[in-house]
Amino acid sequence: MSMLTDPSIKYRPFEPVDIPDRQWPSRTITEVPIWCSSDLRDGNQSLIEPMDPAKKLRFFQTLVQVGVKQIEVAFPSASQMDFDFVRTLIEDGHIPDDVTIQVLTQARGDLIERTFESLRGAKRAIVHVYNATAPSFRRIVFNQDKQGVVDIAVNAATLIRELAAKQPDTEWTFQYSPEIFTSTELEFAVQVCDAVLDVWKPTPDNKVILNLPATVEVATPNHYADQIEWFCRHVSRRDSVLVSLHTHNDRGTGVAATELGLLAGADRVEGCLFGNGERTGNVDLVTLALNLYTQGIHPQLDFSDIDAVRKVVEECNQLPVHPRHPYVGDLVHTAFSGSHQDAIRKGFVQQKPGTVWEVPYLPIDPADIGRSYEAVIRVNSQSGKGGITYLLETEYGISLPRRMQIEFSQVVQGETDRLGLEMTAKQIHELLDREYLQAASPYALIRHRLQEENGTSAVDVEVLVNGETQHWRGLGKGPLEALVAGLPTAVEIMDYHEHSIGSGTNAKAAAYIEIRVDGGRPLHGVGIDENLTTATFRALFSALNRAARQSGQQAA
Ligand SMILES: CC(=O)SCCNC(=O)CCNC(=O)[C@H](O)C(C)(C)COP(=O)(O)OP(=O)(O)OC[C@H]1O[C@@H](n2cnc3c(N)ncnc32)[C@H](O)[C@@H]1OP(=O)(O)O
Ligand SMILES: CC(C)C(=O)C(=O)O
């Protein structure tokens, strides 16, 4: 068994809709659709182990918290557990006043009756009935011609209308899905739906939902949009119908298909959190909602703590969310690569609170969905100075000057190449400490004395040189110049920076110095101390020791 050299003998291409004056390509989504979660039905029916009642309730409560107002809670005629779950929601008062539950049934009399039984006492409910309409399903599943399939739908719609009339205390909404809509002849899909509408007789004040599923995704998303636009133009009573989308992700374009379907005129979207569902899943409601959010439109769903939502979904579905999943994956707000890190770090520096978000490579501010900036930059062998600098700045308040960033990134690069692993902020700090701050050989600064008079500094330092105590003295216009004057070797100061770390009584000074010894290669040193002069002297000794180490020379 292998791939066919000519797959056209086995697979048919999709036949496009002829709609040359299509309008959807030049539209933009400006309105939030009605969201309906199908997690507890379509999502649940696809799980290895369907949720138990406790998990279903937990999931339901999470959906309510997030702000979903229509929730397909069960297929009550499928099992006693699903039936009982609907009863629990109604009898134990779990359904908030602004939330409507929805249930699914096949277009079969006994199943519809059982469905209505499950809904006794509900304040409001959507009864969702479906039957497949595509040619292969008419032939393979129902062994019916077109009229036979219309009759299945009409009979079900009629029974639903009658049963609803017998439970007048419930505010009913009816929903019909021509299952496999995407593979159904459009004229026939409209014919079946119109037949159902003739039974339900909706009005603009009492609309029905026509849900047009990409039960199996069979074409590029533009074709789905064409199908939706064509349907919206041709269905009767358009003003009394909410056109609903229900996409799956077989070709990996469920989100795109839904977005284009909205452009094409749909009003409502069914899907599941993080895209759980049959096969490759239902469309991901979270991605759709946050795609709107990053266009500046509040989706009316709240993912301010997206990780808490993910935790519930993962625990209930017993399926992990992929680390690259849009918005929520563990790695989706993380940059490992050097140029990305550099741009992100610069973006953070320039991003002002309350202004338009412009941090490069981050389509959303992770803080808006409850993510910290900690994971935004992680360092491995693909990383550059930007990332290293960012981690030292954010985690330790250490701001390396630019030229030292370049030098230290090579030290880190050597280490990541050697280890072949990611380096955490702590490991990078330890490397900085080892390489610069602990550099105490051959010269170890024991103590110093500084006197200042009439703008001249006199420095006297006690130094341990290869185990032997030495005293160096120098004069200069400032402490650093004085110390340099007292050194036994010729040292040129190329660059110097200082800043404080922290504030108040715990504040420390960080000093960075770049020197050249005997005309050699410039090298940096770092010193950190409560006292700025001590930090500066330490930085100079750090640089001297690194220079000595690099040249392999013995101290004088
Ligand atoms: C795309 C979707 O996700 S649709 C939703 C699918 N979800 C589920 O099916 C989950 C819950 N379903 C179930 O547990 C079961 O299907 C039940 C309990 C509802 C029904 O089980 P069964 O009575 O054993 O029937 P089964 O599901 O095998 O259906 C087969 C019969 O129903 C018919 N049928 C299937 N779907 C429909 C439909 N939507 N409307 C009317 N008849 C249908 C088939 O033609 C077949 O009829 P036949 O026996 O005369 O050949
Ligand atoms: C019942 C319908 C809407 C369905 O789940 C599908 O077609 O995927």
Automatic annotation (TrEMBL):
Source organism's superkingdom?
Bacteria
The enzyme's first-digit EC class, named in words, is transferase
Coiled coil regions in record: none
Gene name as annotated: leuA
Q: Which GO cellular component terms, listed alphabetically, does the Swiss-Prot or TrEMBL entry include?
A: cytoplasm
Task: Report keywords, A-Z.
Answer: Amino-acid biosynthesis, Branched-chain amino acid biosynthesis, Cytoplasm, Leucine biosynthesis, Magnesium, Metal-binding, Transferase
Residue ranges of domain Pyruvate carboxyltransferase in the record: 33-307
Q: Which cofactor does it need?
A: Mg(2+)
Organism from which the protein derives: Halopseudomonas xinjiangensis
Q: State what protein this is by name.
A: 2-isopropylmalate synthase
Q: Summarize the subunit comment.
A: Homodimer.
* EC number annotated for this UniProt entry: 2.3.3.13
Q: Which reaction does it catalyse?
A: 3-methyl-2-oxobutanoate + acetyl-CoA + H2O = (2S)-2-isopropylmalate + CoA + H(+)
What is any Pfam family matched here? HMGL-like
Role: Catalyzes the condensation of the acetyl group of acetyl-CoA with 3-methyl-2-oxobutanoate (2-ketoisovalerate) to form 3-carboxy-3-hydroxy-4-methylpentanoate (2-isopropylmalate).
**Amino acids binding Mg(2+):** D42, H246, H248, N282
* Entries under SUPFAM superfamilies matching the protein: 2-isopropylmalate synthase LeuA, allosteric (dimerisation) domain, Aldolase, post-HMGL domain-like
